[in-house]
Specification:
CATH topology: Pnp Oxidase, Chain A
Largest sheet: 7 strands, antiparallel
Number of domains: 1
Order of helices and strands: HEEEEHEHEHHEHH
Number of helices: 7
Radius of gyration: 21 Å
Oligomer: single chain
CATH class: Mainly Beta
Strand content: 35-45%
Structural class: alpha+beta
Length: about 220
């Protein structure tokens, strides 16, 4: 991923947080039939042996991913944060010289590593329990695996296979108008805040946070 210095992720912790809060990853792998992409929720967790942590999840047993990707093959998990179109009409500098063009702001994290498949019911049950607890937190009545009949869960577990990726390299891009002068950043934040488009409010907050530094 091309990452100019002014668009670098603010910290490793910020990348970890994005993976936790936006866990639906695009998992890209190289197979005998070419590149393949699967969309899988992955749970990030710290790992004593890997400074960047570990990703765990599961796929359908019918999904050829777990058979086609060996332990020697590197995979790429892409996590997507907020994104938004940026209109040049929001830049005050447009009135000065007109030298502005549209762009797109976005946040993304790329996690590289080797994929390991785990066909073990105890491991899988623990992973499903942790994944469910993570995303049911905050619900009025959090659902748990034990809420469903044991036989039903056992049958479904037989239809999935666990996957694990120890992250070997982590890179992030926070493109939030940092390359613009403060007045233009303020204009972008204001424009996004009232645009009403999906993701615009979250991006407006990121742009505004950068503008406050007045760099």
């Amino acid at each position: 991923m091309y990452v100019p210095k002014h668009f670098e992720a603010p910290s490793v912790e910020a990348m970890h947080e994005l993976m936790r809060t936006a866990p639906l990853a695009t998992l890209v792998s190289s197979t005998s039939v070419g590149l393949e992409a699967n969309h899988i929720p992955l749970l990030w967790s710290p790992d004593p042996a890997a400074p960047s942590g570990c990703l765990r999840g599961h796929v359908a047993r019918a999904n050829p991913l777990w058979r086609n990707v060996t332990g020697e093959s590197e995979v790429l998990a892409i996590f997507h944060g907020p994104d938004a179109y940026v209109s040049p009409g929001w830049y005050p500098s447009k009135q000065e010289d007109g030298k502005v063009v549209p762009t797109w702001n976005y946040v993304a994290v790329h996690a590289h590593g080797r994929l390991r498949t785990i066909d073990d019911r105890d491991w899988l049950r623990e992973q499903l329990t942790l994944l469910t607890a993570e995303h049911e937190a905050g619900m009025a009545s959090p659902w748990q695996l034990t809420d469903a009949p044991a036989g039903y869960i056992d049958k479904l577990m037989g239809a999935v296979v666990g996957i694990e990726i120890v992250i070997s390299r982590l890179e992030g891009k926070w493109k939030a108008s940092q390359n613009q002068p403060v007045a233009n950043r303020d204009g972008v934040a204001a424009g996004l805040a009232v645009s009403g488009r999906a993701g615009a409010a979250r991006m407006a907050a990121l742009v505004a946070a950068g503008a406050e530094h007045r760099t």
